[in-house]
Fold this protein.
Amino acid sequence: EVQLVESGGGLVKPGGSLRLSCAASGFTFSDYSLNWVRHAPGKGLEWVSSISGSTSYIFYADSVKGRFTISRDNAKNSLSLQMNSLRAEDTAVYYCARDSGVSWSFDYWGQGTLVTVSS
Amino acid sequence: QSALTQPASVSGSPGQSITISCTGTSSDVGSYNLVSWYQQHPGKAPKFMIYGVSERPSGVSNRFSGSKSGNTASLTISGLQADDEADYYCSSYAGSRIRWVFGGGTKLTVL
């Protein structure tokens, strides 16, 4: 069974940093691109970042480019998101989502971890 | 404001059919047959329901179907059941720079 479990969320002050993690199991981790998608209160979902299985391809949404860094450890089946210079508008539930490899869709998601940026 | 526009809420009675629309632009929904739909129950992870506009992943009921016309995609749920009550989100590929866009979500209430 495919499982994605996020951790690392919490309360952080504006300008601060936080590192999110996603532990994966139930599939060959290095075969799949992975993504971070966030859901801010009262808003729709927003794609944040993606990384290919080999880490050769990394992409960011304009809203986080230069502040967030995605990475993965294929030996540990782990995905990470380093978030720096956090802003109030980064407040959201952050989901780890697996790229299905078909038609630009996400076939498995974690339950999310809440990041709150507030003074 | 989300890139794709969905109605905030829809409702239907058990056994009825409902349709949720997802309106984008010629840069996303209108340009690519790469619309997907996700179901999310409160406190749960989103579930993959539709991809490629109208394809169902293995295990998803055939009561769920998708379609597209121009810049608007639609999700239809037939034979409504109580467990269908959830939030539904659409998504579309939007080109190599933006990559993915999502809708604001639609809350389905089964009366």
Observations:
- The first strand of chain A starts at residue 3 and ends at 7.
